[in-house]
Amino acid sequence: MRIRAAILALITAYVARAGVAGANPRPLPFTYPNETLPEGSVELELYTDVNPLRVNADPADPSKGQLWEPSYVLQNELEYGINDRWELGFYQVFEASPEDGGSNGFAFDGLKWRVRTRFAEPGELPVDIGLYFELETMHDELSFEEKVNLQRTFGLAKWMANLWVEQSLERPLDSKEHGSQWVFIVNPTTGFTFQVTPTFHPGIEYWARGQLSAQGDSDQDRANAKVHHFLGPVAHLNFGRLWWSGGLYWNLTSQKTPEPGDAYGPVWFRSVLGIDL
Asked: Where are the beta strands (DSSP E) in the chain?
């Protein structure tokens, strides 16, 4: 009971201090806004991705049917405002991959390092423009990401888009005989939000991910690698020093029940909780 009371008191204190907030909320879970953290500000963001997939009910006998078992990706991101236009970010990434029998294997997946900037103050240009660069050092992958972040505000409505590409090297420490190769991935996002109240911002968001020329050793590998498209409603709650964004996205590429080994289910859920430290 004391622990619960302490957590509630901490949350209440953050909400009560909303008037002096230095946080940089993300109204769209997948799309970065143009704004960056103020100089010297620190923010913690907690990501949860849920992707419902299928596994064999019996690891030794596929004929015994299948079960739903979600895949989870958990990310902790610490952001720091170098100045009012430059921002650093550091991630820790954990994955819980579904396993036959209805369990999952939880493991540390790696680290991400990124820097983000913007060209001007919001509204000074016809379209707000920012840049984002990221290095991913995962357990089995080395990746470089680049984004052009675009934004425009129309009164209480806001449009945002990230033109996002990634170059990924699988098994970077292994030889070519074990599959080490560069792949090019596109991951564009866009969406709209509307400020109903200063606290509540509903919206809609689209995102996609995959290879324009899908590679893989099997038909399933190539199907997993191709571009998959998602669209769905989002909601953003902004309490100042504490904010939350969530979205439920339908898989526009395929609504069929996935088979064991498929990378995407019929829906995708993302939650992002932000706390100004």
From this structure: 42-56, 66-81, 86-99, 103-118, 128-138, 141-154, 157-170, 182-186, 189-194, 200-209, 228-238, 242-251, 267-276
